[in-house]
Structures are given as C-alpha cells and as structure tokens.
Design brief:
Blueprint (H helix, E strand, L loop, with lengths): L2 H19 L3 E6 L3 H15 L2 E6 L2 H10 L8 E3 L3 H9 L3 E2 L11 H9 L5 E13 L23 E4 L5 H14 L1 H12 L2 E5 L4 H8 L4 E5 H9 L4 E4 L7 E9 L5 H11 L2 H4 L1 H4 L5 E2 L23 H4 L2 H14 L6
Parallel strand pairs: 1-2, 1-3, 6-7, 6-8
Antiparallel strand pairs: 3-10, 4-10, 5-8, 5-9, 5-10, 5-11
Length: 337
C-alpha cells in the first residue's frame, strides 16, 4: 500500500468524527520530545481544523497531573511516554476504554498493550533502553554492559533521570529488578549512585548532557542517543550486554475530558501510518506501531538488541509501581545529589 493510498484510507476512517468535531479544540498532554509534540500538534490542526492546546511534560509528571485532576480533568488525551504509567492510570480509572477502528493496523506489541489495559491505552511506538557515551571523553575500554557503569573512573560522570518524573528512568528501575531481582537491583543502583552527577527531571536530558560534554554517559532510551549522533554529537549508543528492557510508548483518553469527540479524532489519527511517520521528521527515531508506517532507518533495530521479557502488566500496576518508587526514594533518592 503506497503513502497516497494510506492517507486516503486514514482520511476516510476519520471523516465522520472529524466533521463532528470540526472547529472544536483539543487539550493534549504530550510526553515525547518538545519538537515532536509541536510537529504532531500542528499536523493534526492542519488536517482536521481542531485547535490543539498542548502541554509537554515527562511521563511521571503527566501521570501526577492527571491524578491530581481526577474528577475535574482539564486534558483530553495523553499522548506518548512510557507505557507503565499509562497502565497505572488505566488501573486507577483515570483513563477511558476506547476501541479505535485503527487497531487492526497496529503491531502485536501495541495491541497487547491495549488488551492488558482493557483497551484504555494503546501502543504508538517502541524503543529499547540503553545508554550513550561521549567518545571524546571515553576513549578506551568503552562500557558495553550495565556492570561497566560501576567503574570508579566514571565517578560523578553519569546522568540518569529520576524515576518519579521520568518514564525512561522508571523503565530502567523495572528493568534492573527483572534482570537481577529486587534486592540486587537496589544494591546495584546504590553503587551506581557514586557515579551519578545528577538525577534529571527529563528522561532524555542525560544524553543531551553527554553530547555537550557536561557528563560522559547518559542512561536513556537508545533512540534518544541515536538522535544526538544524527545531530553531529560524538555519541556512541550501547545496548547493554546483560540484556535490557524496552518501552511501549502509549496513548490514552483521559476520563471525563472536556472534548471527548475531538479526543477520539486525535486517537484514530495518531494510530495512522501517516501520523506516526511525523516522528522521524522531528528527529525522533522510535519504532512506530502502525504496521504500514515506515520505520526510520536511524532507529535501533530491536531484533539486534538482547531484550528481556518485560512484564508490562506487573510493572505498570499501581501496587508495584508505587512500591518501587517509594523504595527508590527511601534508598536512593535520600542519598541526594
């Protein structure tokens, strides 16, 4: 199916809702990079005439905002960000069930995300966790494994986000627990703390710091490291040798949002191949969930990464996610930086 046919098919599927929602507005909570948030919002407005009021925050911050607004929601759609907090939002009744007619076009891993949540969220992209290092600062014995990041030569020279605000960092926390067991994972994180210069709010900030030489290593999703390399930074992307977790970036309709018709128009449109290909134009190199969308050639090949069997249902549950974040605060966050 060519791009012209795809656009026509998507337009036909969206026509009834678009007509119904014409001239309305949409309040979007966006949890991908700022440039992608803007590009996606502007494209949607051009194609539908619906004005988008967009706020960009990381996954953890957006979950906290939706939770705080429970009963009086201001947002309509939560688009992007790691799937774990989307699943927690679904479990806590903060988001609504919706079975888009576009579900027939998504990859199995995206559909599983929908099924796990009772169709209160859906996968829109995927990306593997890893890290990137500045090759002008790390010139020999390059780190290839999670264990290598404990090397004393990296003291105060690694950045990673705070898992309370960042879905990227929560994915790292959940990954370590699945790789090592909970107690060993927290022991690892306590040792790693000696090498951490800063726990950032944003999940992608650590690799931007590595790109500018503020730190040597940033723990991020691999596609964020690749984006810095594409921009000309001396960043080398690493898929850790022990294995690693991955995200299913997700999308959810906020329960009781002020513009439900426009929200469904966005939801259907965002699952289309044409809409998902906008990410690459904004230098975001995740793997799209629509089967017909072109995967950016720069995107890390997930088949070449040693991925763990990440348990999204467990680590996206309210009980487990809340408990892990509380333990991180008590054992790692309390150490300060």
């Amino acid at each position: 199916m060519n791009r012209k046919t795809l656009l026509a098919t998507a337009a036909l599927a969206l026509a009834p809702l678009t007509a119904f929602a014409q001239s309305k507005e949409l309040v979007l909570y966006c949890s991908v990079g700022e440039e992608w948030c803007r590009a996606q919002s502007e494209a949607f407005t051009r194609e539908t005439g619906i004005n988008v009021l967009m706020t960009r925050k990381s996954s953890g911050e957006t979950f906290a905002q939706i939770k705080a607004e429970e009963g009086q929601p201001r947002g309509d759609v939560w688009w992007g960000g790691t799937g774990d907090p989307h699943l927690q939002a679904a479990q806590e009744g903060l988001t609504e069930e919706y079975r888009s007619p576009m579900l027939a076009e998504v990859q199995d891993w995206a559909l599983r995300q929908a099924e796990t949540s009772g169709f209160k969220t859906v996968g829109i992209y995927a990306g593997a966790l890893g890290f990137g290092y500045n090759s002008t600062m790390v010139t020999e014995n390059a780190p290839a494994c999670w264990a290598d990041l404990l090397d004393p030569r990296f003291a105060d020279d690694i950045q990673v986000a705070n898992p309370n605000s960042s879905g990227t960092s929560y994915t790292m926390l959940a990954t370590m627990v699945q790789l090592m067991g909970e107690d060993e994972a927290f022991a690892y994180l306590a040792k790693l703390h000696a090498n951490i210069s800063q726990y950032t709010k944003s999940g992608s900030a650590p690799i931007r710091a590595a790109a500018t030489g503020e730190s040597a290593i940033g723990i991020v999703f691999m596609h964020d490291a690749v984006a810095q390399t594409v921009e000309g930074a001396p960043i080398v992307t690493v898929a850790p040798c022990e294995g690693t977790g991955y995200e299913v970036g997700s999308m959810s309709l906020i329960k009781g949002g002020p513009n439900p018709e426009a929200a469904k128009v966005w939801y259907d449109w965002a699952l289309s191949a044409a809409a998902q290909e906008i990410g690459a134009t904004a230098k975001s190199f995740q793997v799209p969930s629509n089967k017909n969308a072109a995967t950016p050639p720069e995107a890390p090949k997930l088949a070449d990464v040693k991925l763990i069997d990440y348990d999204f249902a467990k680590f996206g549950s309210s009980e487990v996610r809340t408990a892990l974040l509380a333990r991180w605060d008590a054992e790692i966050g309390v150490l300060g930086k």
